[in-house]
Amino acid sequence: MSGTSAGSAAAPCRFAHYFVICGIDTETGLEPDELAGENFEQSPLKRTFKSKVLARYPENVEWNPFDQDAVNMLCMPKGLSFRTQADQREPQFHSFIITKEDGSRTYGFVHTFYEEVTSPQICSAMQTLYQMHNAEQTNAASSSSSSSSSMDSLASSLDDGYSPTSSSSSSLSRAAGSYDSSRDTLYVSKALCLITPMPFMHACRRFLAQMHSAVIAATAPPLPLESYVYNILYEVPLPALGRSLKFHGIYESIVCQRPGPGELPLADFPLAEAFSLLGVENLVQVFTCTLLEMQILLYSQDYQRLMTVAEGITTLLFPFQWQHVYVPILPASLLHFLDAPVPYLMGLQSKEGTDRSKLELPQEANLCFVDIDNHSIELPEDFPQFPNKTEFIQELTEVLLSFGFSANTGAPPRTRSSPGSTSSTPGRERKSATLRQLEDDGRNGNLAGEELVVLELLQGNATLERLQALTKRTGVTVARVEALRAGVKGQPTDGGNQTGGEEEELRNAKLNVQLREVFASRFTTMFADYESFVIQSAPDLESWLTNREQMHNFDKASFLSDQPEPYLPFLSHFIETQMFATFIDNKIMSQWEEKEPMLHVFDTRIDKARLYNIRAPSLRSSCYQRCSILKESAQAIEQRLMKIDHTAIHPHLLDMKIGQGKYEQGFFPKLQTEVLNTGPSNNKWCHKATTAQRRKDRHRQQTEHLTLDNDLKEKYMQEARSLGKNLRQPKLSDLSPAVIAQTNWKFVEGLLKECRMKTKRMLVEKMGREAVELGHGEASITGLEENTLIASLCDLLERIWSHGLQVKQGKSALWSHLLHYQAREEMLAQQADSPAPRFLERRKSDSSIAMPSLRVSLIQDMRHIQSMSEIKTDVGRARAWIRLSLEKKLLSQHLKQLLSRQALTKKLYKRYAFLRCEEEKEQFLFHLLSLNAVDYFCFTSVFTTIMIPYRVVIIPIKKLSNAMTTSNPWVCVSGELGDSGIMQIPKNVLEMTFDSAFRPHTHISAIFKCQNLGKLTTVQLGHDNAGLLAKWLVDCVMVRNEITGHTYRFPCGRWLGKGVDDGSLERVLIGELVLPSGEDDSARACRTPPLQRSPSQGRHISITSLTGRDTKLNSAQIQEGIGEAVNNIIKHFHKPEKERGSLTVLLCGENSLVAALEQFFHHGFKSARLFQKTVFVWDFVEKAVAYMESADQVGDLQETTEAMKMTCQSLCHYFNAINSTSRNIGKDGKFQLLVCLGARDRLLPQWLPLLVECPVILQMYEDTAMLRDPSTLNTLISVLETLHDFSITLEASLVKGINL
């Protein structure tokens, strides 16, 4: 991704901004680098010493001010490195990136080599250090202590990554040996660095390598080194968009190219290397973590590998951009950055042979750890997979194979070691060698060691070069050399005048762009319709920026509902990220200002895809679409590299004093500052840019006159662009305590802001949903989205608890704190000799007369989680505990209690930690408290397989019935996830409680354990009718989940017993969730509406009781009730399957289909005479069926149609099956069953005309009855027929024992 620099005239033009030399300052001598984690037990040659910027040219560039500390730190992240003649002194190459606070990037490319130390003071200082070290070693031979603090151990594990040793024995001898100035030659590292605005990695690498070759060559270079440095700083321009450029190094020319405006942005780091280091699947997983903005830590001995993987991954994000902390090479002095409680992508240098298990990181709950050298990754838990991952990996593998790369084992073996990556164990060495990808030393990607040596010999030999040129002119080719150059053994080149390096570079560039196109194609497919969901609500930029935080810019719910099911787990997380929010912001701002370049390319691609697909449904299907433009994307690069568009001015002699910076082999000369600090005044491409800049300036001045508050707009713009970013890039340079404190303060502010935004979003979404259930507007949140929001809250809490930890214990900082609290409370409880921890509170439910109150205790909730064998990790336990606390509406209260132990918090956290900032902590707990206004079932719905204890209480109506019963009661509790099965309740569980007036109340109470039933829907209650006191009038049944505390009330208000009411011995009751009585009115006003209820006492018990009441409904009300009941069932089926809830409630609950049809059948029913027994609707059905059966036998039905006969038979068959069931469900229960089965099997509308045509109707119904009105009946039939489109499944508790 290209970093752009704003500012002065030549800013967009120059290829390189600075040439920098870093190394040892002979005047200040050896300075230990305390920040890098000094370890005095190591031998002086392995210690860290401060490096300095020795020279930089030019002194300063107006549009890109030189950051001396940052450049020095990143050129030599581990400071100076010393060697003797006995050590390997291979030159190393690495690159780095400096991200400024405004998000713009500058790239650095560094060539590090070893130069002999000529200063006698430094040699003698090293000798003195060695003598002191040896004396200490002999004194303390027995004690070898290791560092205890997590950060110290991290520092020591990072120490000395750049010292490859050939075997374990040599490293031992070095540790025991010493440096002797009379015997040994001392060498010290020196770095040559180019700082550029764009990542032309290959070109810079080759230029610097040639510079070094010139220094160590036996003969001086053709021109003084100043000429080449001046040339690249002032005379080599950036290639224009879509053009290639050739410029001249010391020994050979160098080519680079830049993509055109419609192509993917520049990316020069070799993706093939990243793929071979990690393997395709691992890289896709790390890429997914990056998209979901997790914390990503790269770990390798080799700085260039860190950079290659980091840049590779961020390059593949197109059209999105990483918005958080980005430090691909984290200097040893900046380890405190790992404490950052924000998403980051950082690279950490590992010490050779360091075991990953010894690496203590401040936070790991949401960390993706990438061990590059061992080709392994550790992923966070609960990690959604990238859509179509298998097909995606397959396509990437095919692209790699087409270029001769194995997808999982890397490039052909190389014998030359990459920086610092040799290992002391031969097995590991072999493994690394096999998996080591071609180093991006572009020239020789496929050469084995022997050929590499030959080619290097030829490359720098002028005589051989001239001989070769001569043979070429005479038509002879030196096949061996040509083959080496092309990187293909024994095959002649294809006649072009390209060198092997250029061939390799072309191959790399083509592979890079094809791999990137495969990634870009996935996003083009996934977000083909994204524009349709962007909400353009503001009239102008200013008002949009002003109200940015309050606005919804993207219709997430509609977007998700439009996506294929398999994509949802990933997409629901991804559209919550900052990078997606920024992408949408850029889209909205593009209507008022110039489109952001990456967005422009992406939109163009989507338009093109639409042309081909004509917005076909394939854009939305989950079928995998392969990338179709691989060839043409590679051709564009090939054409540019084959046909050079522009050649820069050749290096030339400068007007400078002769004799200064005299050539001395092996030593980099001191360059003449006055020549290199000022560029040419008459440079034509600089002049062009200046003219263009002037034009732009004039235009800007005009617009400033038109808009007076331009500064204000700019301020808004900056704020809008940084919205949601907790902390933009922290400064690498200033490491004073004040700056570190300020950085931490920004983290604290950022965390608080994030907490506010998250809780607000959760509330708004949830309340929006509840408004829908109450009948206002449309739903805006899905279960999937809710789960995503809760997962992101868990992540935020983990990051808050990880901030400022003293010592890390376990992967979850929150769970670790809870365990400390638990241990402390249990110890206090033992000392006080009380069985339970303090701070207990009892929560009453509305049914507190019958239900014993549930103890509210943080420790108790922890124990519930600890007893769940399904959860294996601390991170999982912490998330489960958060979900449970949220569901119980105790999250804020529990965390407040946890933090009330201030001594514990002080022991665990540093002073700057978020949890020790009192005011912010209070605000944070207040934001969490606001979540109590809504209901979550985030624990119940996620942990579906755990065993949960349920308490069942059966409450009789005492005034009219026996409180006791001699029969044996049983219950079966059903929920959305299953049922408990029939459970017999022992007779000896009768309990007595007293109400506020000290009146005694008896009820039956029992506890049973079964697998999580989810939200409870129905209870079947019955008894066996045994003994003298077998009749039982039940008020209600209460059931409570003993873990979450959710209590459900199942109203009954009916008799259970033979010869009373409708003679039922069992009933199916429908539940409603009971509000905890502690909740105030404001919380009640905005909470989830109650579920449907079972027929309560208030509903008719029989026709007699109904006719004697004033609650008769008129025909219009009854019709409205039927319409509403059917509507609710249709709405149920239109919801996503996972969010439908209970259908039983809609069929048999309070305002259900059964209840509405009962009202319909009761309308105009002839009232019972005095002293006659009660009549039920079932009695009418029974008589009608008896008539049909007798008519069929007599032969009266012969004239009817075949269809009518079939319907008649089906009604009789169903009636007999219900009547002959072994269950004692009573007459109302039987009618309910007939309606449910008729609705399920789509027979109900056919049965109604049959019942109406029976003569029985004349005896049992008035003339005005709705059942006898043909038009009303036809309306009812057409309404019921609308249910035929849906497949109704009945709960097992309803149809038990019915044999059809």
Automatic annotation (TrEMBL):
InterPro entries with a match to the protein in the record: cDENN_dom (IPR001194), dDENN_dom (IPR005112), DEN5A/B (IPR047278), DENN_C (IPR043153), PLAT/LH2_dom (IPR001024), PLAT/LH2_dom_sf (IPR036392), PLAT_RAB6IP1 (IPR047277), Run_dom (IPR004012)
Sequence ranges assigned to domain PLAT in this UniProt record: 948-1070
Record's GO cellular component terms: membrane
Protein keywords: Guanine-nucleotide releasing factor, Membrane, Repeat
UDENN domain mapped to chain residues: 33-594
An example Gene Ontology molecular-function term: guanyl-nucleotide exchange factor activity
SUPFAM superfamilies named in the record: Lipase/lipooxygenase domain (PLAT/LH2 domain), RUN domain-like
Residue intervals of the RUN domain: 784-944, 1144-1295
Subcellular compartments: Membrane
Matching Pfam families: dDENN (PF03455), DENN (PF02141), PLAT (PF01477), RUN (PF02759), uDENN (PF03456)
Repeat in keyword set: yes
Biased composition regions of type Low complexity, renumbered to the chain: 412-426
Residue spans of biased composition, Basic and acidic residues class: 427-443
Family: Belongs to the RAB6IP1 family.
Protein name: DENN domain containing 5B
UniProt source species: Astatotilapia calliptera (Eastern happy)
